[in-house]
Write a structure and sequence with these properties.
This protein is α+β, with helices and mostly antiparallel strands and about 230 residues long. The protein has two domains: about 110 residues, Ubiquitin-like (UB roll), CATH 3.10.20; about 100 residues, Alpha-Beta Plaits (2-Layer Sandwich), CATH 3.30.70. Helix content is about 30%, strand content about 15%. The longest helix has 18 residues. The chain is globular and about 60 Å long. It starts with a strand and ends with a helix. The structure holds iron/sulfur cluster and FE2/S2 (inorganic) cluster. Iron/sulfur cluster binds next to helix 4.
Length: about 230
């Protein structure tokens, strides 16, 4: 076991744990947006920043930082709270209409952003892209473009030949930016990409979609993948 100190508590966790896993297992709250237990760490949203205390204190993303013997970590220092509030302010700048962003702002006392930018339902957490790659094994979507134009999309912004329309991207999206609906059995429409797709079998898990699966079927499938992960 690895021993470390988090907020003056001594924790013992198995090797390979991240700081976020150690915190969660010990009921130490750390907000997250781009972390998902079924997916590899990504470190995109920076909400989960914590402070490593020592000669050279610094902030690290707890979802991606491995636990090390003797580490001293603070999850709620002034530096952590200031950084977290800045992250939330940036989220508010584009996505103040999203319930998840409003809830974060209320919890951390962030009232209004310094700037406002073009409204966006997507917070670029990358969960959908990683779920498509890591869980479904397809890679039909990716994060495209740079800077302010950064967005999730299909190659060349046209219907992806690889998409099996499983809907996993929509299920993991924390903001509802990806809307998928059944249009004709068994076809689905991904509104965000203005594309219709016929549902097809998953090459990875060999799941054969029934003619019309419900959202509950998909949730159960995703749950099974998580348990096996
Ligand atoms: S569409 Fe949703 S899951 Fe994908 S990056 Fe944007 S907010 Fe995250
Ligand atoms: S949850 Fe760690 S960076 Fe997003």
């Amino acid at each position: 076991m690895i021993r470390l100190t988090m907020d003056d508590r001594t924790l013992a966790v198995p090797p390979g744990y991240t700081l976020l896993q150690a915190a969660r297992e010990n009921d130490i709250p750390i907000p997250t947006l781009c972390a998902h237990e079924a997916l590899l760490p990504y470190g995109a949203c920076r909400l989960c920043l914590v402070e490593l205390v020592g000669a050279r204190s610094r902030l690290v993303a707890s979802c991606a930082y491995p636990c090390e013997e003797g580490l001293k970590v603070r999850t709620n220092s002034d530096a952590v709270i200031a950084a977290r509030r800045t992250v939330i302010e940036l989220l508010l700048a584009t996505s103040a209409h999203l319930p998840i962003v409003r809830a974060l702002a209320a919890e951390w006392g962030v009232r209004s952003p310094y700037v406002t930018l073009e409204t966006n339902d997507c917070v670029l957490c990358g969960l959908c892209v990683r779920a498509c790659h890591e869980i479904v094994g397809v890679g039909a979507i990716s994060l495209t473009r740079r800077g302010m134009a950064r967005a999730v999309g299909t190659p060349f912004q046209i219907s992806s030949a690889d998409c099996i329309e499983c809907g996993t991207c929509a299920l993991v999206c924390p903001t509802g930016a990806i809307r998928v609906e059944d249009v004709t059995r068994p076809a689905r429409r991904a509104h965000v990409w203005q594309s219709d797709y016929a549902r097809r079998a998953c090459r990875l898990c060999e799941y054969e979609p029934p003619a019309m699966a419900s959202a509950d079927d998909d949730r159960e499938l995703l749950g099974n993948v998580k348990r096996e992960a």
